[in-house]
Amino acid sequence: MTSLDEQARAILRKNDRGGYTVPTDGLYPYQWNWDSAFAAWGFATFDPPRAWAELETLMASQWDDGMVPHIIFHKVDPGYFPGPDVWATHRSPPTSGISQPPVAATLARLIWEMDTEGGHSHMAALFPKLLRWHRWWHETRCTYGPAAITHPWESGRDNCPDWDIGMEGVDGSRAGDYTRRDTGHVDPSMRPRKAEYDRYIAIVQFGVEVGWDQARIVAEGPFLMADPGITFILLRAHEDLAAIGRALNEDVTEIEAWAAQLRSALPTIWNPALGAYDAKNLRTGEFANVLGSGAFLAYLADASNPELEAHLMRVWDAVTYGIPSADPEAEVFDPRRYWRGPTWPVVNALMAIGFRDAGRHDLDARLRRETVELIQKNGFAEYFDPNDATPCGGANFTWTAAIWLTWAG
Ligand code: 2M8
Fold this sequence. Notes:
By secondary structure, this protein is mostly helical. It has a domain at 318-409. 50% of the residues lie in helices and 4% in strands. The chain has helices at residues 3-15, 33-43, 48-60, 84-87, 104-114, 116-141, 152-155, 164-168, 182-185, 194-209, 214-220, 228-247, 253-264, 293-296, 306-317, 345-357, 361-378, 398-408, and strands at 31-32, 71-72, 148-149, 225-226, 270-271, 276-277, 280-281, 383-384, 391-392. A three-stranded antiparallel β-sheet has the order 3-4-7. It has a two-stranded antiparallel sheet with strand order 1-2. Strands 5-6 form a two-stranded antiparallel ribbon. A hairpin with a 6-residue loop joins β8 and β9. α2 runs antiparallel to α3 (48-60), α2 (33-43) packs across α18 (398-408) and α16 (345-357) runs antiparallel to α17 (361-378). The radius of gyration is 19 Å and the shape is globular. The site of (2R)-3-hydroxy-2-(alpha-D-mannopyranosyloxy)propanoic acid has 10 residues, from α2.
């Protein structure tokens, strides 16, 4: 075990709040959905029971309609905004009212492979919950074909340029006065701008106004965009859930049908003008015309092609470290501003799962080498400048530690 392995384990232990892990101390004091699934994967390398507990705590906050919320506010902490009072979902424990990228089934399958015997009963208990969550995605978010998001936060890639055209239609002036907390923890120039935050809050307020009625949010809400990233993550997760179900002798016909339907919708998010998968404003039918890391998650769902790969190599060669979250040759590229350019070790790890499964060991080896270099040079940061490796956002980050233990290190 190297000292970086030890540091990574220590980060997971330190961010463990008992049954759930926070993304990082201070900036993110609650349980986040996809961060938690990555934390579980990391724990599985040295403490499998703790890995299962993480997933169980996450799924315990599932809503009656099947949704698994993006934040669970176990213990109120004034260090984060917007807190449970703003979301007003009236759940116990309080939660947000949107979801996040459904990586849990994919990572649960990997965790089960690492803990086959000990994990059997845990996997059997989690399966029906994951099934209900996937049904929720299929029924409420895939009505247009690809997976739709109702808030940029739902994508996990909050302020990436993909959402700019959808955000133009959101009236941020409704947000009123509020105090951000994120900019007190980290350099504000690395965070979304105020104009974006006003709109984030305005979309939350709409959810509160309609009592978090998901059908109304999809039909009438201020923001609705097709997300290539979630589409590929969900497609892959459907396939992993079906594999889990088959191993448990469950009937998986329904899951296979969801996967087939989602795969058949992929041509609707292929933008011929861009030569790549693209986000689409579902209110107007307009493409974002933005190349981002969501498109490259196609590898995770075995949905890449030579045209997309040419773009991948172009954007990757344009930076020094890892795959950037936005196209470095586009005007909007901003190498340190959160999801508008930086490279995210956690997204690199997801892409690498796809590279490996496709037998693309060349791509996996390069991505791994560059991600290792970032962490060796500058620690377990939330994300990095892809040009000069500057560590950005929060330090001692759970998912960066987790992907070190499972993939990079
Ligand atoms: C970021 O998102 C939250 C809102 O959900 C925020 O900025 O306050 C994103 O990077 C998201 O993908 C991540 O899950 C979360 C916690 O790490 O932080």
